[in-house]
Amino acid sequence: MSFRSSIRAVRISAALLCIFGAGVVITEFVRFLLVFPQAGALAVMLELPLVLTGFALLRRLRPARAPALPWSAAALVWGATAAAGCALLANQGLAGLWAKTEGVKFASDWSASLTAPLNEELLKLCGVVMVALAAPLAVNGPLDGLVYGALTGLGFQAVENVTYGLNAILMSGGTSPDRVVLNSALLRVGTAGLGSHWTMTAVAGAGAGYLILHTRRRRLIRDASRAGVTGRQPAAGPGYGLLLGAAACLAAAVGMHLLFDAPALAIELKVVVNFALVAIFYLLLSTAFLHRARELLTAAVAAGLVDAADAATILSRRRRRRELRQVHLPADRDKLRERQQDILTELDAEAA
Amino acid sequence: MVADQPRLPPGGASPRARLRWLLIVVSAMVLLTAGWPLLNAAVADKQQLAAEAALRVGPSGPNSASVRVGPGWTMQPAESDPRQSYLLRHGAVTVSIRYVMLTGTHHTAGIWGGLRRVFRVSNPGIRLGTPAAVINGQGRAGLSAIATGARTAGNMTAFVGPSGTYAIQIVVLAPRYAKQAAVAAALLLIRSLRFPAAAR
Fold first, then answer.
1. Minimal Cα–Cα distance from A97 to chain B, Å?
2. Which residues in chain B touch residue A18, judged by CB atoms under 8 angstroms apart?
3. Which residues of B touch A173 (CB under 8 A)?
4. Which residues of chain B neighbour A219 with C-beta distances below 8 Å?
């Protein structure tokens, strides 16, 4: 199979899984929208600010330049459709098993925290892997994985918030449906939003990034040995530590989710812990990325491959824009933009 | 970017590796989405209840209610949660007992419209008749209405708890041929319904 047809196979599969997931969500909740159209519309509308703001902010997390818009949107859509829809079915199945085997009292206390972390983290993580498979240059390492993971989690979070709002109508007996939906959204977005799905999937996504980095290193070593290269080998070796990192990230994401769903803990504490974890992890990854990028740029300037002026501006969005504004001829501006993007693409791949 | 340094290949995998990973992802999705439900379906969703067993529904003592069932009743654990609801069966009769947390303080008449709409969400195609007054074993007033569908008959009953901040909704449904059994089940549950807060 050719490179192009393998990419097409991934994209078609991803689209089908998204359609399936969306179908499950719609089938499950369409009755609410028919019987409570106003409250249903409100539940959806209340998530729009979260989605739009979150989407813009999370894309800004990527240093130097934002991830590609179509793939950012694809990650968000995967979370909102394929992951959310499949999670509905998987969670119903596993939660039912807990109740049948361990009793309804145990299931009432623990079913959510023993069901959702396993199912949902894996289903959301599949979205990051799908983006990496569908767009070969999109995910180069843990930082890319973190951003795409956060976007996938955001999509999932928004749909879950809508379903919680609609379920709250049922649990309140249909009395004051608009108020119930508003309260649910305020709790889910206002109180829990900062430490919810986007944080967990960001950590799991970084794990996918480590896995991708591991496979890239393995390919490099394999290609070098096939070509009979005896000179410099990649300093880091095949990177089995990266595999460990990938597993640790997934375990951490599951742990964060378990904590989030655990009974008898204040929601504020859960949110603070999850947010702090992802913030620290992000700062470590982005600092390391920028450090490596600066080292690469210094070496490239010394080798005469990149202008010192370009190297000074390339890592800052604002400085790049300012540099572009200073070029008056559109053709020259396009050429400069193209050069900037070429350097950034190389940096993304090598500093990951 | 630096000429003499070994460079990592871009993030994309080879076509074979890409298809292998695609297979892994799709398998994981299918395993979770179909595997758990299939395993769940393989385990019987039926727990025999002792005759005269009392089931408490609701989050805590004063904010709860209990019903007592007769002989031959079973509970469906996968659809039951002591904090929120029970799904019970007796022969062809299915009973749902749901704790409803109200926003503000209400009387039964004030929440009937909302409950009727919620009933429509869970039971499409089944119509509710005009509600009539009923009284539980503690002498507390509630409302009950006959439910009629193409092949189903039964009723919905609601009582607001003593605090007025929660309600208990009981939906009894059975095939039309078991209409009398449904009526008998509803009467049994209405009579046995107790609010601990009202007993004090």
1. 5
2. none
3. 100-102, 111, 114-115, 118, 158, 167, 169
4. 9, 14
Residue A303 near residue B3, CB atoms below 8 Å: yes
Burial state string for A56-72 with b = 16 or more CB within 10 A and e = fewer than 16:
eebbebbbbbebeeebb
In a domain, A343, yes or no: no
Report CB contact under 8 Å: A303, B102.
no
- The separation between CA A68 and the C-alpha centre of its own chain, rounded to angstroms, equals 13
Domain count, chain A: 1
Range of the structural domain that residue A107 is part of: 3-272
Complex ipTM? 0.90
Classify residue A230: in a domain, yes or no: yes
A350 in a structural domain:
no
How far, in Å, CA of A48 to CA of B60, rounded? 36
Closest Cα in chain B, distance from residue A55 (Å) = 23
Percent of chain A beyond pLDDT 90?
A: 81
CA distances from A100 to A105, A107, A122, B42, B53 (A): 11, 9, 24, 11, 18
pTM over 0.90? The answer is yes
**Lowest-pLDDT range of A204-208, B3-7, B11-15:** B3-7
